[in-house]
Amino acid sequence: MTEIGFPPEYPMQLYGDNKATMHIAENDVFCERNKSIEVDCHIVRKKLKANIILAKYVTSGHHLVDLLTKPLGRIRVDFICDKLGMYDVYVPA
């Protein structure tokens, strides 16, 4: 955002539901099984240390992006739409 003229006023929040991935991103120490960590993990770690982003844990049941990425039942869609402040414009008034 800084590159296009919108410097952030506070760290961007990065939400995830995988605690192991968040732990790997936040810690420098790798175990033998993590030797094949991609470049993007190193970039995320660098941004976390520079306090540009904050990693926050969110349970799988509260991921609002599921509305756009997964087939969901009506109850789940209604829950997410309510959380996003969306409403059906075609409902009779």
Quick rundown:
The chain is of the alpha+beta class.
Task: Explain how this protein is built.
This protein is of the alpha+beta class and 93 residues long. The chain has 2 domains: 2-58, no CATH class; 61-93, no CATH class. Helix content is 37%, strand content 11%. It is built from 4 helices and 2 strands. The chain has helices spanning 19-26, 39-49, 66-69, 74-84; strands at residues 12-16, 53-57. It has a two-stranded parallel ribbon with strand order 1-2.
Helix percent reads 25-40%
Average of the residue pLDDT scores:
80
How many structural domains? Answer: 2
What distance separates the N and C termini? 41 Å
**Strand order, largest beta sheet:** 1-2
Query: What is the CA-based Rg, rounded?
Result: 18 Å
Class by alpha and beta content: alpha+beta
Order of helices and strands: EHHEHH
Using brief descriptors, characterize the structure shown:
93 residues; alpha+beta; two-stranded parallel ribbon; 4 helices
Q: Helix and strand layout, with pairings?
A:
Layout: E1 12-16, H1 19-26, H2 39-49, E2 53-57, H3 66-69, H4 74-84
Parallel strand pairs: 1-2
